[in-house]
Design brief:
The protein has two domains: 174 residues, AttH-like fold (Beta Barrel), CATH 2.40.370; 146 residues. It has one helix and 21 strands. Strand 6 and strand 7 form a beta hairpin. The protein starts with a strand and ends in a 5-residue tail after the last strand. 43% of the residues are buried.
Length: 338
């Protein structure tokens, strides 16, 4: 499937569809200070609002969080609810900022009931000032031909990039200097969170600057897709297959350990690899639309790879996030079998 991607795609796109969404997302993790998180803005101009999320996994195990749907009038910029993104140099330098209040969750699982979590926990003023620089070639773009079925649109165009993140984060009286790594993505097109039956999105930054993204998207009535990419420090290698197995918590049915076997197109042919992850902290998010309930569980994860991707054979430990989206049916996530 041929895709188009140019510097102009770092900016905004037209979208006449009622559910058109244009979003950017930036995650990071600094293992030295023990701080991680992500910031997202998803513009829904034809619905008159944005989706704005800030999530910070603090070193002591608490999570500082907010989600808002601020009103917007157009799709001219990423600026909503106290958060903003600025493209300084396409694919090379972007700035992420947030100034506002975050709720402090000693038990992040309380966000399974957002209203109760937001009203029963303390709030603090917070700031995020991070500069993201490209650490790898971007992966993805907009396909020349549509690859989504009607009613299952999730991202007409979509690319991702491993990055470095530097700057400062403050929550209340606490402040941290960030020097970490992460992944960013940018997508546009019609989207509802109810379109996938479930998905698994694994973002991984290894200690030597290599990394990967693995994706499993399931359809209710078909096989779905399995894929991703590996960055070995010099180039992008496509992943042809991803097989995910999950160890779930008994209470709440959240993912706590992940194993992903995958096949990457290596220089000498296909290679079978294995990635395992242990979730260190997790917050469940919820989206409701047309009577359906979708859960997106965001897990700060420590990754272990079977062998290094680059020249340093000791670089088998990494950090990142494991994002599990499931439709909830009869109180259970639909993807428990995987």
């Amino acid at each position: 499937m041929k895709v188009r991607l140019g510097p102009e795609d770092e900016y905004m796109h037209p979208g006449p569809e009622p559910t058109f969404n244009e979003s950017m997302y930036f995650n990071f993790h600094d293992p030295v200070v023990g701080l991680g998180g992500f910031v997202r803005i998803g513009n829904r101009p034809n619905e008159g609002h944005a989706e704005m999320t800030v999530c910070l996994y603090l070193p002591d195990g608490r999570v500082a969080f907010t989600f808002r749907r601020p009103e917007i009038a157009d799709n001219e910029r990423f600026e909503a609810g106290g958060a903003s993104f600025e493209v300084v140099r396409p694919f090379e330098e972007l700035r992420v900022a947030y100034r506002g209040r975050l709720v402090l969750l000693t038990d992040p699982l309380e966000m399974a009931d957002p209203r109760a979590a937001f009203t029963s926990n303390p709030w603090e003023e917070a700031t995020v000032e991070l500069t993201y620089t490209g650490a790898a070639t971007p992966f993805g773009g907009e396909p020349e031909e549509s690859h989504e079925r009607p009613g299952e649109e999730f991202a007409r165009g979509h690319y991702e990039q491993l990055v470095e993140a530097r700057g400062t984060v403050t929550v209340g009286e606490e402040a941290w200097t960030v020097d970490g790594r992460g992944l960013r993505d940018h997508s546009w097109g019609p989207r509802t969170w109810q379109a996938p039956w479930y998905y698994r999105w694994l973002t991984v930054n290894m200690s030597d600057g290599t990394g990967m993204m693995l994706s499993r998207i399931a359809r209710q009535d078909g096989p779905g897709t399995r894929g991703g990419f590996v960055w070995d420090g010099e180039g992008i290698h496509l992943v042809d297959d991803v097989r995910v197995s999950t160890e779930w918590t008994d209470e709440g049915r959240y993912h706590q350990r992940v194993r992903a076997g995958f096949i990457v197109r290596g220089a000498d042919g296909p290679e079978e690899r294995e990635l395992t992850g242990e979730v260190r902290n997790l917050i469940p998010l919820r989206n409701r639309r047309d009577g359906r309930v979708t859960r997106i569980s965001e897990g700060l994860t420590v990754w272990t790879l079977d062998r290094a991707l680059g020249a340093d054979p000791s670089a088998t430990t990494g950090h990142g996030l494991s994002e599990y989206l499931d439709q909830i049916v009869d109180g259970e996530p639909v993807g428990l079998a995987e």
